[in-house]
Design goal:
By secondary structure, the protein is of the alpha/beta class. The strands form 2 sheets. Strands 1, 2, 3, 4, 5, 14, 15, 16 and 17 form a 9-stranded mixed β-sheet that branches. Strand 11, helix 7 and strand 12 form a beta-alpha-beta unit. The protein is globular.
């Protein structure tokens, strides 16, 4: 049997694996899409592709655990919106005007924007009412066409359509695109139905929570399940995050949006006190950029500010750059139940990795690698991106042949919506 071998050579490796640590100079060997070795001076025999990472950082791809990807078709349209204005404008006014083709465009554009920024995994919280199978398939086709590792969190559709997607399209647990259920809260009966559907289809769930005791409510209704991603978690009452932890759930914080739209103080200190390592997320591209550098910086800044100013409670620890980088990599993998596949450069895992340049004037000289990633870098420093061993960006250029036409289509959608 022929083995496809790729070698990333000479980089400074931030493995995010405690056993491997940070390697000042090392190679990463990829065979048939998986990492098989990480160390210095690896044998290059039979290597079909070599990526020179000398003078660069090599680390796992970033993981975004909550993004409404269809909204990339509306990027930047709601920068000044509060949360209530977003609901009224984006969800209730603009969303109904989008066609199946528009939804395909939004998901594909969001996926490519993620890859361009070194985000190799996204959980797509698909919160648009999809009246037909055509709309659902347009969203899914975009994800599968993009080459992004993604979780399609089905929402706002029908149980029948969810069953169709699960049985016909997203039945494999180890595929590049997998499925979850966006089980948003409503009345008690709706919550129970969502829980029953998730159990029937053997799917993890994701839902937005803010304030009060929503986790206690799920437990009371018998639908608090392991593997649930709780989104935001701002303003929860005491004990709710501990309940998330004890149930085997995870927390996704979107610090940039939570601060600009008014969700509340991003709960980094509360998560730490509850023994939860959160993940990070972009949320909505109508009002936030789609890269993880922005989210890491927002997390780092608001987390430290809250602790230093006493807003996070007495004795709240100061976030470190290392912790924030963990949130954006292995923390995201843990939240999505993918820590056995991605999130660190561990031999045996899928080769989802990025190469970051350190020779640009906004980054050099490099004193602390982790600090540079969190505090100084941006998408322009992303040189190379691999997903499952496949090169999707190289030498700073996204390798997607249909990009010019996609951007032209995006402009056509903008003009149509602006005209109406």
């Amino acid at each position: 049997m022929t083995t496809a071998r790729l070698l990333v050579t000479g980089g400074r490796v931030l493995s995010m694996d405690p056993a491997l640590g940070e390697l000042p100079v090392a190679d990463v060997l990829v065979e048939d899409g998986r990492i098989t070795d990480v160390r210095q001076d690896l044998d290059a025999t039979g290597v079909y592709e070599r990526i020179d990472a000398h003078g660069c950082l090599v680390l796992p791809g970033f993981i975004d655990t909550h993004r409404h990807m269809w909204q990339a078709a509306l990027r930047g349209s709601g920068a000044d919106q509060t949360l209530d204005q977003y609901f009224a404008t984006v969800l209730h006014s603009l969303a109904p005007r989008l066609t199946a083709d528009d939804l395909h465009l939004g998901n594909l554009l969001s996926a490519l924007g993620a890859l361009d920024a070194g985000v190799t995994t996204v959980q797509d919280i698909s919160n648009i009412a999809k009246p037909t199978e055509e709309h659902t398939d347009a969203l899914l086709d975009a994800l599968t066409d993009s080459g992004l590792r993604s979780v399609f969190a089905y929402g706002h559709g029908t149980a029948q359509d969810a069953r169709r997607v699960r049985t016909r399209r997203l039945h494999a647990k180890d595929a590049l695109v997998t499925m979850a259920l966006n089980a948003e809260a409503g009345g008690d009966e709706t919550i129970r139905r969502n829980g029953d559907l998730a159990r029937e289809l053997e799917l993890p769930t994701a839902l937005h929570v803010r304030g009060g005791r929503p986790v206690s409510r799920l437990r009371r209704l018998g639908v608090l399940r392991p593997g649930t991603v709780f989104i935001h978690g701002t303003g929860l009452e005491a004990g709710e995050l501990e309940m998330v932890r004890d149930s085997g759930g995870a927390l996704s914080i979107a610090p940039a949006i939570e601060m600009t739209m008014g969700h509340g103080l991003p709960p980094f200190a509360a998560a730490a006190a509850a023994g939860l390592r959160p993940s990070l997320s972009v949320d909505v591209e109508v009002a936030a950029p789609s890269d993880m550098f922005t989210q890491m910086r927002a997390a780092f800044q608001v987390g430290r500010f809250a602790a230093l100013q006493g807003h996070a409670g007495p004795g709240a620890p100061l976030l470190t750059a290392r912790e924030v980088l963990e949130f954006a990599t292995i923390g995201g993998a843990e939240a999505l139940g993918m820590a056995d596949r991605t999130g660190s450069l561990t031999p045996g895992k899928q080769a989802d990795l990025i190469v970051l340049r350190t020779d640009r004037p906004g980054v050099a000289p490099l004193h602390d690698a982790t600090g540079a990633v969190v505090s100084a870098m941006d998408r322009a420093d992303v040189d190379t991106v691999l997903v499952a061993g496949r090169i999707v960006k190289r030498a700073g250029r996204l390798l997607y042949a249909g990009l010019p036409r996609l951007l032209a289509r995006a402009e056509e959608v903008r003009e149509r919506l602006a005209g109406r």
